[in-house]
Amino acid sequence: MRYVDSFILPIPTRNLKTYLGMARLGKRLWMKHGALAYMECVGDDLKNAWGATFPKQLKLKPRESVIVAYIVFKSRAHRDRVNAKVMKELMGDGVEMQMPFDPKRGVYGGFKVIVGG
Are 68 and 7 in contact (CB under 8 A)? Predict the structure, then answer.
């Protein structure tokens, strides 16, 4: 069974270039330590006629975008091992990144895959 970590982040549009650098580093690290897939996506078509929209749910401010990201693992145990290795490497490098978004407004969770690979 696959397991997915997912993130949804509101981010000031002016910070997208900075975030892209973080996302590229994230992909390199998670894939190096065994993640099966790593995707970071920026909102493009967020208006719809049904259901709640991302801008409304996230209370987006003017000139903010939405990032939706996910990382795929073999299982929850595999996720825990991979994440521990990534965090150890990040902390070992003494890397202190200034977040280009407000982490308190982000949404995160781990999910069991029920349909799909």
Answer: yes
For the segment 20-65, what is each residue's pLDDT rounded down to a tens digit?
A: 999 999 999 999 999 999 999 999 999 888 888 899 999 999 999 9
Task: Give the per-residue pLDDT at 99.
Answer: 85
- Give the residue carrying structure tokens 């995160």: 108
Query: Is domain 3-112 annotated with CATH 3.40.50.720?
Result: no
Distance CA 4, CA 76 (A): 8
CB 25 within 8 A of CB 92: no
Contact 38, 23 (CB under 8 A): no
Domain boundaries, the chain: 3-112
What one-character-per-residue DSSP string does the chain give? Answer: --EEEEEEEEEEGGGHHHHHHHHHHHHHHHHHTT-SEEEEEE-S----SSS--HHHHTTPPTTEEEEEEEEEESSHHHHHHHHHHHHHHHHHTT--PPPSS-GGG-EEEEEE-SS--
Residue whose entry in the numeric block shows the structure tokens 């595999």: 78
